[in-house]
Amino acid sequence: MKLIRTENYAEMSLEAGKIILDKINNNPSLTLGLATGSTPKGVYDYLIQDHKSNGTSYKQVKSVNLDEYIGLPSKDPNSYHYFMRQNLFNHLDINEMHTHIPNGAVSDLEDECIRYEKLIKELGGIDLQILGIGQNGHIGFNEPGTSFSSRTHVVTLAQNTREANSRFFNTIDEVPTHALTMGIASILESKEILLLVSGERKAEALLKFMNGEISEDFPASALNYHQNVTVIADRDALKYI
Ligand code: F6R
Predict the structure, then answer these.
(1) Residue 96: is its pLDDT beyond 90?
(2) How far is the CA of 208 from the centre of ligand 1 (A)?
(3) If I label 233, which of 14, 52, 197, 208 is the partner at 20 to 30 A Cα–Cα?
(4) CA–CA dist 141, 162 (Å, integer)
(5) Is 153 helix (H, G, I), strand (E, B) or coil?
């Protein structure tokens, strides 16, 4: 595992952005695994800025997102579909047909999980997966206790995850109780993984992760089984390291 230490959020975003651009320049039709949340926003801003100034093209790029809430239509401002359009896709020349996010608004969720796994395979797997980490160590929406052999599945969100995410909603009651997420095994099949960690509120999770104890109680620890993980963390997140 490689660790890149940065001063702050802006520098973390810049370092991650440079790695992603390098991959796209080497392989203009790569498949990117994308995350939502506060952590990758700066990276997405960097990619948008670069696209505007340098014209990096995403016409051939494919993307698969990690997760989506269940029960929110894609037009809902809190859905991850909406987040990705607002924060990235609408500002690039990416073909909407090449962007994929689990659909949490379908009636047959089990079928959706199977479809999503099949889709990732058909795309030839994920070349570079961007990850954030939850304070409880979740990756995607794989909460503590999730099997390392899990595939795309339906999850019940942990109460602390709903609390953490309630900052985007009017009240905690509006935060969905369930979500669809790629599983840990699906994530581990990515050829390369970039884990981004910023801010003091992630410091304990990062410490636990770096200490290397591998347990399903701490989902991010599964990344220790992967051969090509780069962690980019800022000084506040690295407080205990
Ligand atoms: C989001 C996702 C989550 C977040 C994590 C951290 O698609 O997969 O695992 O990466 O909850 O969220 P932020 O970045 O908002 O602290």
Answers:
(1) yes
(2) 17
(3) 52
(4) 11
(5) strand
Is residue 32 included in any domain, yes or no? yes
- State the pTM of this model: 0.97
CA 19, distance to chain mean position in Å, is: 16
Give residue-wise pLDDT tens across range 161-210: 999 999 999 999 999 999 999 999 999 999 999 999 999 999 999 999 99
**Per-residue pLDDT at 98 exceeds 90:** yes
Residue 241 lies in a domain: no
CA distance 205 to 238: 10
List, for residues 24-83, the tens digit of each pLDDT value. 999 999 999 999 999 999 999 999 999 999 999 999 999 999 999 999 999 999 999 999
* Choice from 12, 63, 133, 197 to test ligand 1 binding pocket (greatest atom count within 8 A of CB): 133
C-beta separation of 94 from 58 below 8 A: yes
Domain CATH code at residue 151? 3.40.50.1360
Q: What's the pLDDT at 212?
A: 80
Q: Is residue 239 part of a domain?
A: no
For 30-47, the DSSP string reads -EEEE--SSTTHHHHHHH
Which of 12, 66, 135, 161 has most ligand 1 atoms within 8 Å of its beta carbon, as the pocket-test mutant? 66
- Indicate which residue's Cα is closest to atom 2 of ligand 1: 140
Pocket of ligand 1 contains residue 34 by CB under 6 Å: no
Judge if the beta carbon of residue 66 lies within 6 A of ligand 1: yes
Range of the domain at 77: 2-216+226-234
- The residue behind tokens 């994530």 is 187
Residue 240 lies in a domain: no
What's the number of domains the chain is made of? 1
